[in-house]
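Entry 14. Ran structure prediction on the chain below.
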Amino acid sequence: MNKLYFNTILMTIAIIMLCTPVGANDSNATAKPILLGMSAAFTGPSKGLGIELYRGSQAYFDKINAAGGILGHKIVIKYYDDGYNPLPAIRNTIKLIENDNVQCLFNYVGTPTVTRVLPVIKHFNTDKSVFLFFPFTGAQPQREFPYEEYVFNLRASYRQETWGLVHNLFMVGRKRIAVLYQADAYGRSGWDGVRKALTEKELTIAAEATYRRGADFKDSMKRQVEILSEAKPDAIITIGSYAASAAFIRDARDAGVDVPICNLSFVGSENLLQHLSDLEQETGKSYTQDLINSQTVPSYEDTSLSAVRDYRKAMTENPPAPPEGFGKGYKPLQFSFISFEGYLNAKVMTEIMQRMMLREHFGSLYAATLSIRNLDIGIGTDINFGRGRHQGLDEIYYTTVSNGKFVPVQNWKRWSK
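Output, structure tokens:
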């Protein structure tokens, strides 16, 4: 066999491989699932966040897998509990990459955990490409140098959420804004967003107080209420998770603080509301008035959106259970903003995986993701990624409590001062 003939054969084989979708002729395709690695809180006071995000994503993947997966490959979430703590999140990340050999990291929950695993992800990228997709946090570190190239965000940032809350409160005359925040990277990220938004309007934070991560609903927030109420704020923005934020709202209302209290999307609106609604039934007092929560996905009550209709059908007809081994004593929510976000995360992740198996992207998650332009996923706004743009959405939605549920804010003037 001469050298020219041999090179011709090699070139022919290469062309055939390039023109064939990855996995199309893989007889072991059904035996080789696509593994996505998830580290999240499945235990502790914030377990509802991890459980509901997982359930929402699993609801979409169940539908895809029932139809045969992606070219025969089922999508599987390999999950570990970190309890919303950084050190377990670091250990989980190393295990997912080194031992489980996941396709990518996916659906991580929380700023204090994500910010600590970013250097780990960067380290692994010296040998191979490792990406984190769609973490449930709006913090800045994964959106900035030197980590932004390793992370793709779907949701808008905390800066966008806090700017919107401050702006809308300002427009109805509420300029003295106090802040309660979790004493960690998440809390400081939200605090910084509020500070920047107020600075634009030549204002400062009226008062601030903190609490320790891991605080539960049974814990007292009376001292924090005293600190903030002394400043006579027009509104309070809390940057916390649902158990601690609900405890603060309880103690604030009991102390006669009746100004609007706002929460960021991370809080877990339905879990927050459950605590307060149960308390209302026990005491006969009102704890759910004048609550305003920002969200990074549309309302799951808006059935004019095709994604909402699909999500509600999936969560009604075949609702996923909590991750196996977790969720003891936890009552899963039928619908929530968090599980809807998980559902959308899975929908976009599936699109990326499908594109990755096309010949033009040749197995590259990075190239497949950057190819997404004007992707309609049924929420009324398109998804866009690209070089220098690793955040797919910028929309912020505002909700308040009415008839026992969070519904879209129709008019901010109801809170005019």
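The chain has two domains: 22-156+303-386, 158-295+398-415. Will compare against last week's run tomorrow.
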